[in-house]
Amino acid sequence: MNVFDYLFNSTKDLEKDFLLGSKETISFKKLYNDSLKIASYLKETIGEHQNVLLISPNSVFFLTAYLGILKSGNTCVPLNYAIEQSNLDYILKKTESTTVFIAKGIKRKLKLDEDIHAIEERKSLSILNTQQPVDFNLDFDNNRVAEIIFTSGSTGEPKGVMLSHKNIIANTDSIIEYLKLSSTDIISVVLPFFYCYGLSLLHTHLKVGGSIVLNNSFIFLGSVINDLKTYKCTGFAGVPSHFQILLKKSKTFKTEEFPDLRYITQAGGKLHAIFIEEFTKAFPNKEFYVMYGQTEATARLSYLPPEFLKTKTSSIGKAIPNVELKVVNPKGETAEINEEGELLARGENIMLGYFKNIKETDFAIKNGWLHTGDVAKMDEDGFFYIMARKKEIIKVGGKRVSPKEIEAVILSVPEVVDCTITGLDDDLLGEAILATVVLKDSNDEKKLKIKILQECSKHLSHYKIPQKIEFEKSIKMSLTGKKSNKRLSFNKP
């Protein structure tokens, strides 16, 4: 089954609005019919099995183009709308794409060759006004590639994660099951749809007949809070920085009442326990789901049910329905209880592989198991804990240090909003530790530095104490809300 037909199976005739908001709205029925026209246009003009790029902020234009590409039997390649020209050129060449759906404002900033067919909103509207729907073969192989999501690779070149129609269907079913989603759910979306976490919100709510509210301006915290209340959102999804900013930067968030809000989900990296405690203390009656996943798993691999937040602090929980997880030690054997090793995953949500990269695919998927690259352990109750990313481990004088442990200590200092621990190239130690700290308000940085070092001395071994502390004015985030860590050189005289 084509994932388009799966998503609209019981909602294609609904007059109810799928997209709510002050700027744009669209009903299930119109979204279905408009997407079908885009699909028909693509089938008539480029056929099937082509890679079609989509570069746009979250909008009706994105929704219609995305779903239309999927239905057409072509492969959607959603890209960060802040993409650099060099990366766009690389992806265009690698995918051999000749068709690009692109928002008008973005097209002005990027250069596209004359042989690229660029479809902007105006052209898209023309298609919707003139295109007649065509017939599609319902005998559809759901193992076909539905989308390619490019992620940053270890070599610096983006890696294209190939996700099939079956992958999306499997992950959507699993998420709907454990979050208990229904047609009454309304999700506040601050995550971009070129990010797999954002796409999972789109897929799940479209499938159950719920609704979404788009907010592309998280920096304006008042608008986020207003959306949650005005549109009676039952769900909110964010990455760690979203919660840190809401808790530390907003003066009113923790005192607001959100009577319709049922649950909150957090993924996209570790949210330290101190922030989870602060959030759940402010909103004790809301269900807070800690989740873990990767693009290579379509989105989601595990979740921690809210009732275990206090007893299984820092755990990523257990596998989502229809997914298996295990920890393998360096010998390749299944790890013992609380023994650290690499986390492996298996299920129908695991990617087909990396686009035109057999070597990386064979390294990531072995005997049907996805090697996540995360160091983890499992406790006696079957709950999993991420200890560190393999590539994030810092070796100070040969000793292994996890950044997360140090970050947790520094974040316990009340004046600290955010902390990122990275490794510095060091002539003596091999690697030294840099702490990049964001403070809540204007504070005396010299005094705060002393306070942070004192706190570290109380709770950490001496080799885990940062050799250097730098202060930043604000959290530096990508459009997905994630932070980027850069390795620096730190040579002592």
From TrEMBL:
Domain (AMP-binding enzyme C-terminal): give its ranges: 405-482
What PROSITE patterns does the annotation carry?
AMP_BINDING
Keyword Magnesium tagged? no
Domain AMP-dependent synthetase/ligase: where? 16-355
- Annotated GO MF terms: ligase activity
Keywords annotated in UniProt: Ligase
Please name the Pfam families in this protein's record: AMP-binding (PF00501), AMP-binding_C (PF13193)
Q: Which Gene3D superfamilies match?
A: 3.30.300.30, N-terminal domain of ligase-like
Q: Which family does it belong to?
A: Belongs to the ATP-dependent AMP-binding enzyme family.
Name under which the protein is recorded = Acyl--CoA ligase
